Amino acid sequence: MFRPGKDKGIASPIPLGLAALATTTFLMGFGIIFQSPITWAPYMPQALLFGGLIEILAGMWAFAYGDAMGATAFTFLGAFYGWWAFAHMTFFGLHAASAAAIGSMGMVFLVIGAVTFYLWIASFYEFAAMNLMLLFLWVSYVLIAVASFTAVDVIGLIGGICSLISGLIGAYGSFATLYNATSLQEVVPVGEPTAVRERAEMEERERIRRIHAVDHVHEAGAHA
Q1: CA distances from 96 to 30, 38, 150, 176, 212 (A)
Q2: Domain ranges in the chain?
Q3: Angle subtended at Cα 221 by Cα 216 and Cα 224, rounded to the nearest 5 degrees
Q4: What is the pLDDT of residue 57?
Q5: Signed CA dihedral, 124, 129, 134, 136: sign only
Q6: What values do phi and psi take at 2, rounded to 5?
Q7: CA dihedral of 101, 105, 15, 165, whole degrees rounded to 10
Q8: Residue 79 belongs to what H/E stretch?
Q9: 142 close to 113: Cβ distance less than 8 angstroms
Q10: Coil, helix or strand for 88?
Q11: Is the pTM of this model over 0.90?
Q12: Cα-trace Rg, the chain
């Protein structure tokens, strides 16, 4: 798929989107494993700003860039993390939430997990780091939802571990895509499928052809 953002000089939003998603997901998992929800207050501004606002901006950036997967995943998950931060600041504060509120939050995690599941299915045509990050992400959401419904702490702990793994994979993907973009070659592997690589090469050839065609038109007009 040709991405018109490249012709406009728009840089890839993937490194920023993965960085914002990875840090918030990692902190969420860390909090679930090692801390009580009443101590999560410092994480909420981070989730609201990085996981929410910055992630949504990366999604809008991906729309302009022509990346449907990045645009959908970053915007959707950014809105979710913004909600998560706002919900905790509203319902939790310094006191434990009621059982009804926890159950409702679990329902939100379950629905978000279902959508993240089909984002993961669609990401089989993306690089492996993106695919694996979404895999552990939707599993973590579902497990956190189940833990909310059943009050079985071990299920929540496993969900938190999956969040940690997802965050680490996302951080690696962010570093790899950024380093490769600045070095203009794939130095750090990201597990890009052959079909995706061939498509990217075709897009680049088409981009160069279009630029040269415009240059030739300008030159012809100047000589006329």
Answers
A1: 18, 6, 17, 40, 63
A2: 10-192, 194-224
A3: 125
A4: 97
A5: positive
A6: -70, 135
A7: 110
A8: helix 68-91
A9: yes
A10: helix
A11: no
A12: 20
Residue 208 Cα distances to 9, 70, 204, 213, 218, angstroms = 13, 24, 6, 8, 15
- Phi, psi (degrees; rounded to nearest 5) at 110: -65, -45
CA pseudo-torsion sign 38, 42, 47, 53 = positive
Q: How far apart are CA 139 and CA 165, in angstroms?
A: 11
d(CA 55, CA 18): 8
Spatial separation of the C-alpha atoms in residues 15 and 38, rounded to whole Å = 32
Q: What is the DSSP letter of 96?
A: P
Residues of the chain with pLDDT under 70: 1-9, 91-100, 196, 200, 203-204, 207-208, 211, 214-224
154 CB-near residues (< 8 Å, 6+ apart) = none
Sign of the four-CA dihedral 90, 94, 100, 102: positive
C-alpha to C-alpha distance for 13 and 56, rounded to whole angstroms? 11
Q: What is the pLDDT, as a whole number, of residue 100?
A: 64
Token output for 179: 């380093």
In sequence order, what E strands does the chain have? none
Rounded distance between C-alpha atoms, residue 119 and residue 202, angstroms: 25
